[in-house]
Write a structure and sequence with these properties.
By secondary structure, the protein is α/β, with parallel strands linked by helices. It has helices spanning about 45-50, 75-80, 95-105, 110-120, 135-145, 165-180, 190-200, 215-225, 230-240; strands at about 5-15, 20-30, 35, 60-65, 65-70, 80-85, 155, 185-190, 200-205, 210-215. The protein contains 9 helices and 10 strands.
């Protein structure tokens, strides 16, 4: 059995003539946090959408916990939790109703719904319509939904948007807890301090391609920027000549 929870081989995604993802290959091990960073339009969200079956690759292969996402899509989806950057909810459901719906689809009981409501500090709004939620409340609801069912792979696209500092810290601690049970993470974020502190490895995308990859320390060495802010490391490596 492979030690990789996620395997991506030569993934390519086109939108007309635009190459959104260009022959990207990467692996994420069980219990590993892999951060995917890049400017807007670099291809991060397109790759994540392909991972969860919301976009079809034009070529290449993706496997989740050994299951090819084309041949065994249902089993792969059951092992995956997903937080999209753009959150869409049933606005006239309450937060609790929505999470119970998700739990039902994942064949989980109500106990975890209550646990996630408490963890994400949604108790005071759990019985209110989602249409009245703030950005931060919606983000926390999306995170709670992604984690219901104890997925083996969690794909989080910009999970920090709308969260306050206290909840960012709680989320970082939660990620560590989920790692300990063997969950693999693919996280996209523009918050470079979070990326450096929370991830085991980082992949930098530009124009649909993976242009650099390594641990945060390895990327610092590649950029020759020992103590600089990690965003400086990102900018230097992302701007390297792609033809080199």
């Amino acid at each position: 059995m492979s030690e990789n929870s996620v395997e991506i081989e030569e993934a390519t995604k086109l939108y007309g003539k635009l190459v959104a993802v260009d022959k990207v290959s990467l692996q994420i091990k069980c219990g590993e946090v892999y951060a995917l960073v890049g400017a807007n339009g670099a291809g991060k969200s397109s790759l994540m959408r392909a991972l969860v079956g919301l976009a079809q690759l034009d070529s290449g292969r993706i496997a989740i916990c050994g299951d090819d996402t084309r041949k065994n899509s249902l089993r792969a989806k059951r092992r995956t939790g997903y937080l999209p950057e753009e959150l869409l909810f049933y606005e006239r459901l309450t937060g609790k109703e929505y999470l119970r719906l998700v739990a039902g689809l994942k064949e989980r009981g109500a106990a975890q719904v209550e646990e996630e409501i408490e963890f994400y500090e949604l108790t005071s709004v759990a019985d209110k319509w989602i249409g009245g939620y703030s950005l931060g409340m919606r983000k926390k609801l999306g995170l709670a939904a992604a984690m219901i069912g104890d997925p083996q792979v969690l794909i989080l696209d910009e999970p920090l948007n709308g969260l306050d500092v206290e909840m960012m810290r709680k989320l970082r601690d939660r990620i560590k807890q989920e790692q300990e049970r063997g969950c693999a993470f693919l996280i996209s974020s523009h918050v470079m301090d979070f990326v450096e502190r929370a991830s085991n490895r980082v992949g930098i995308m530009r124009a649909g391609r993976l242009v650099a990859e390594g641990t945060p320390a390895e990327l610092r060495r590649q950029a020759a920027l020992g103590d600089a802010p990690f965003e400086d490391v990102f900018f230097r490596l992302a701007q390297r000549d792609l033809s080199a």
